[in-house]
Design a protein that fits this description.
The structure is a single chain. The protein is of the alpha+beta class. The chain has two domains: 57 residues; 202 residues, Pseudouridine synthase. The chain has five helices and 15 strands. Strands 5, 6, 7, 8, 9, 10, 11, 12, 13, 14 and 15 form an eleven-stranded mixed beta sheet that branches. Strands 1-4 form a two-stranded antiparallel sheet. A two-stranded antiparallel ribbon has the order 2-3. Helix 1 packs across helix 2. The longest helix is centred in the N-terminal third of the chain and has 9 residues.
Length: 314
């Protein structure tokens, strides 16, 4: 990624750590500092930076930063942050498909797609980079941390834009499954359209009057014991769209900690995953022009799986 207003950053002289890229910083003009360490100390804390400089953990293109490395505007600096301990997500990332261009992963519930906030090493991207030996792997799109199912990653950076554009331009058919209350009074199938807004720093999205910006097709696949199994087909990709639309129908997803009300934040309860699964991805491959469809073999835990059919011994 190029720095705004400057030349493209060179390749990092530091490798990944646990599948996570190093942080990079470009030294700005007019900082008033005479050494790299002085600038970094003001930004990140003088005592911690001094210790990291002594350990050789800050690196520029020509080598490790020392206490005497002179400040030069425009120079890139790389380093690995000290990462806080993370609670391991005790579920594996499946791989549905892998070739020289893409990996289609089957992400479990509770695992973030990419590093963000307090989830860094416990992410699908970090795990796949490490476990598959693919340091240049990058996501073509993202799936919410609490949602399980298919995520497409790009192996070869030359094709990253082509696959990301598929999702940006809504040329991927996404199919989800969910478990939620069953209400015979809710007419299905139906297409729900509304305007969804999510404010920065606010957990829950909301619907408000105005031109619709979100559209979802809702279908009932079956019901059992007061619960329904639903197929959800989003035509748009607003944050929490499917969860908001199901809640608006009076059918909030089972184990949803945000809808219909935001629950107090607690450690993840791995026995109560949000009952939402990205079941299938379907698109025309931008490189080969061939139709492709991938399906997750996962089943939602709260829906009864029929017993295996037994055939008479013979």
């Amino acid at each position: 990624m190029a720095h705004r207003g400057g030349r493209k950053a060179p390749l990092a002289p530091l490798g990944q750590r646990s599948g996570v890229d190093p942080v990079r910083v470009r030294l700005p003009s007019g900082s008033g500092h005479t050494t790299v360490g002085g600038y970094l100390g003001e930004r990140y804390g003088a005592a911690r930076v001094a210790a990291m400089v002594d350990e050789g953990r800050f690196v520029i293109e020509r080598g490790p930063v020392t206490a005497a490395t002179p400040y030069e505007a425009g120079v890139w600096v790389w380093f690995h942050r000290d990462l806080a301990p993370e609670t391991p997500v005790p579920f594996a990332v499946g791989v549905v498909h892998r070739d020289e261009r893409i990996v289609v992963a089957d992400k479990p519930h509770f695992l973030a797609t990419t590093p963000r906030g307090r989830h860094v090493t416990e992410t699908a991207l970090a795990r796949l980079r490490r476990d598959l030996g693919l340091p240049l792997l990058s996501p073509a799109h993202r799936l919410d941390r609490l949602t399980a199912g298919l995520v497409l990653f790009v192996v070869d950076p030359r094709y990253r834009g082509a696959y990301q554009t598929l999702f940006r331009d809504r040329r991927v058919r996404k199919e989800y499954e969910a478990v939620a209350p069953y209400d015979p009074g809710v007419e299905l199938p139906r297409t729900v359209r509304s305007r969804i807004v999510k404010d920065r720093g606010v957990i829950a999205a909301r619907e408000e009057p105005g031109a619709p910006n979100a559209e979802s097709r809702i279908e009932l696949l079956g019901h059992h014991g007061g619960l329904g199994r639903y197929r959800l087909l989003p035509a748009t990709g607003r944050t929490h769209q499917l969860r908001v639309h199901m809640n608006a129908l009076g059918l909030p997803l089972l184990h949803d900690p945000v809808y219909p009300r935001v629950l107090p934040e607690t450690p993840d309860d791995f026995s109560r995953p949000l009952q939402l699964l990205a079941r299938a991805l379907e698109f025309t491959d931008p490189v080969t022009g061939r139709p492709r469809r991938f399906e997750s073999p996962r089943e939602l835990a709260q829906w009864p799986v029929p017993p295996p059919v037994r055939t008479p011994a013979g």
